[in-house]
Amino acid sequence: MIEQEILKASVKEIPKVLSVFLNTFTEIKEEIKFTFGEGIQTYISLKLNSFSNIKTILHRQLPKYFYDIYQTQAVYCNKLRITIDSHKSLEQFGPYITVIGGPGSGKTTLLRHIFMSSISLGEKIPLYLELRRIDFDKLSLNDIINQTVQENFSTESKRIIKKLLELEKFIILLDGFDELTFSMREKFIYSLNNYREKYPNNFFILTSRPSPVAELIPNFTNIKISNFTLDEAISFIEKQDLEEELLTNLKKDIKEKKWNETEKFLSNPLLLSTFILTYKNNSTLPEKNSEFYERVSNALFSEHDSWHKNGYVRKSHSELSIDSVKFLLNEFAFKNTFKLQYSFDSVTINSDFEQFITNQKFNAQVDKLKEDLTVSYGILTEDSGVYQFIHRSLQDYFAAQKVQKINSLHKTIIYDKIYDLTKRTSGYEIGNFIEFISELDDYYYNKLFMLRVLSEFFTRIDEDFFISSIISIFYSSLNFDDSEHQSITIPSHSYRAIFEFSSIERLISKTLFSFKFKNEPDIKSNSKLSKHTPKDRYVYSINKANYEDFENMISKLFPKLKSELESEVQKLSNLRKTIEEYLEKSLEEERRLLENL
């Protein structure tokens, strides 16, 4: 734990630390160095204030000091579990790290910890970038860092920042690769590779939800956020400022449960927080994520704050009923999920809620509704005019609820839109949304979406070229240059958003990246040279025209791959049969009900 006073003292020491870095820059005027030092101090102070005083799903009203409630996180790499005290804990894995973690695992929290711990160490300058706020169509990573420098430090900073980068004085924290749009990801990766090559020995840490694309970024070591152990879960609970009776009952209940049966819900920081939030009303663990989030939703709207030490009774400012507020949240989450929008400026949030309120003829003011959502219920957070759900998974849940509530006559239209949505994204960013729909609206999900996707998948398999045809469903080309850079192009399809297809995709990606494309003569000779990227690169298309050659080559290189793919495809075939039987049984039950009526 880093004491708040130590952090504040560390910030005050930044100009002294920088002066040591900058003394070698004799060609730069002293006043420019001074201005730069003040700018860095201001930038870090602002970030520190934002990161060190936080609201969480358990502490939605008054900010808490980060380290008062933070449970130290651990990661896995090569079966090695390591607790992260600072960026130094990760140095053994090299200077380029990709942190992989599912929803609510604490990826952003970990980056905030690394940012603040690096300040207290005083050895490197941390820069934190939210990738979703960057338009890589217009700007490179180099542009963004220079822009951050010029906006927050001084207009003369470019020369200094370049020299400091050359001296390896930065930790560059890149948050939310999975939140980049599908079209942005490849541009970001090329930009990242170029920047890393230009300044190779700075420390780069990237976060993402599980994704083959993120996990295959060249030269980056993948580490996975570890689940809490039982002791860590208990430690987390003890830090949450709960009433003594509640704390005692929680700890006793969790210790008495079988950890291997409860780990799914209690070893993830977000889900453990929601379990604490809902515990007073229901101490049992649900079987489905959607049931868990229904409890969370109900808890956020109820008067549960009385079981915090600083209890109070909150007031509704909009004077809307809870059902009306939930309706508005369903509409808002649904609309913006289909736009792949997860943060909202004041104009967007005002316009959307004004439209929904008018359509329903509710008697409410948007400003008062926003106050309810951010203060009374704590469902949205606001930072410098930018609004978000307190966790993105809540937006996914409210959007999925809207799908469930839609009239059956309109289900076909909605599922057509969901199908289109999965095809125009890389899939990963909406996987949670799709999972909630599969639980909340299982009959129509299976009938109108899952069967359609499975049927399409099987029609694309060519039995004569089994391996090639399946690989081409998930990856349309192999891309590589004469260095170590290589990647895979992802075509538009719906499979990536669906959990049941994840194992087959991981098998393929793991196989394809186990060898270097540039070392395979057949691939290189049949590739086209593309000059439309930052580097000249070869592009080998995986399509029907070269199925035969590709099949022969892959079969020789990986003789077990065909049988492994056959096993995965059989699982999908069994799934299709199960869904068909389930739908037929549901139809028979409906017929009997109609006959009885």
Account of the 3D structure:
This protein has 597 residues and is α/β, with parallel strands linked by helices. Helix 2 crosses helix 3. The chain folds into 4 domains: 4-225, P-loop containing nucleotide triphosphate hydrolases (Rossmann fold, 3-Layer(aba) Sandwich); 230-286, no CATH class; 322-453, no CATH class; 463-568, no CATH class. The strands form 4 sheets. The protein has a 7-stranded mixed beta sheet with strand order 4-3-9-5-8-7-6, covered by helices on one side. The chain is built from 26 helices and 16 strands.
How are the SSEs ordered, and which strands pair?
Blueprint: H1 4-12, H2 14-22, H3 30-52, E1 53-54, E2 64-65, H4 66-69, E3 74-77, E4 80-83, E5 96-100, H5 107-121, E6 125-130, H6 141-152, H7 157-166, E7 170-175, H8 182-198, E8 203-208, H9 212-215, E9 221-225, H10 230-238, H11 244-256, H12 259-266, H13 269-278, H14 289-301, H15 322-338, E10 344-345, H16 346-360, H17 366-376, E11 380-383, E12 386-389, H18 392-405, H19 411-423, H20 431-440, H21 442-459, H22 466-474, E13 477-480, E14 486-489, H23 502-512, H24 521-525, E15 528-530, E16 537-541, H25 547-557, H26 561-596
Parallel strand pairs: 5-8, 5-9, 6-7, 7-8
Antiparallel strand pairs: 1-2, 3-4, 3-9, 10-12, 11-12, 13-14, 13-16, 15-16
